[in-house]
Amino acid sequence: MFTRIQIQTVSWCNRSCAFCPSGKFPVDKTFMPLDVYHRVIDQLRDLNFDGRISPYLMNESLLDKRLPDLIAYARKQCPESWIAINTNGDALSESLAGRLFEAGLNCMDVNAYDDTSQYEAYLALAERIVERHPEIQLTSGYLDPNFNASDLTRHSKRLHCRDMSDWTRRFNDKLDIADMTNRSGNVPGATHVAEPLALDCERPFQQMYINHHGEAVLCCNDWRFEVVMGDTAESPLHEIWNNDKYRTYREHLQRQDRHLPLCASCDYRGTSKV
To answer: What domain of life (predicted)?
Structure first.
């Protein structure tokens, strides 16, 4: 069974960064209906899910004003889960952060994409948040050398500030960087894959992705919903996860064969063997 799930509660982001597909093609600005969100979370409850729940996917999480309530519902239905979000920080405030963590959020990663001064401002905001909520652990930097995922529990609270300005600059200047990908060909100007790479990929073995329609899509790179694996209105999550379409993709990836749709144009090199 999957250990992580991302749920797209809103369909868009307020930014259009050079390294991201956001803003590069038209997207209807819409919210996931509440009954669809509840259906997905209820299906997780029925699975006694205790992995990571992330109420965002290909969007800016804080654009959804319902987010504290959505997190509270996920916490109630899946009490042992680990709930985490990423944000560009534009809509973050002390009061909102407090509401999110009080609702049951475990981890918030705040990414500063503009410049170092923005990162410093976010870090100062994070320090004020932690001063008001000392139960939250504050960490910072692009990578946290002391972070160990095995230490995470449903009781942990962590706020991490990440300076991404150099990462953004390197992409804008067309400099090589190891963890930059073309998002399956959805990033204009990124590396083009002439032939499918002979690589595996861990994502369809570990993580599930639910778009704002309530459909399971293959990957977080599927910005256009090209490869829909199933609809949670028609089949529960565990049936979708084990259906023939998923099995076919996994079999191909285990053979390091990326000739199937979406995978064929992807330059993601993975983080672990499958």
So the answer is: Bacteria
Residue 264 lies in a domain: no
Range of the domain at 197: 4-255
> Which residue(s) pair with 139 in the sheet?
160
Instruction: Give pLDDT < 70 ranges for the chain.
Output: 142-153, 167, 171-172, 174-180, 271-274
CA 219 to chain centre: 10
Q: Phi first, then psi: give them for residue 217, nearest 5 degrees.
A: -110, 160
Provide the token pair at 259.
Answer: 């000739």
Look at residue 29 in the predicted model and tell me its pLDDT. Answer: 96
Q: What is the CATH number of the domain that holds 220?
A: 3.20.20.70
HEC string of 187-250 equals CCCCCCCCCCCCCCCCHHHHEEEECCCCEEECCCCCCCCCCEEEECCCCCHHHHHCCHHHHHHH
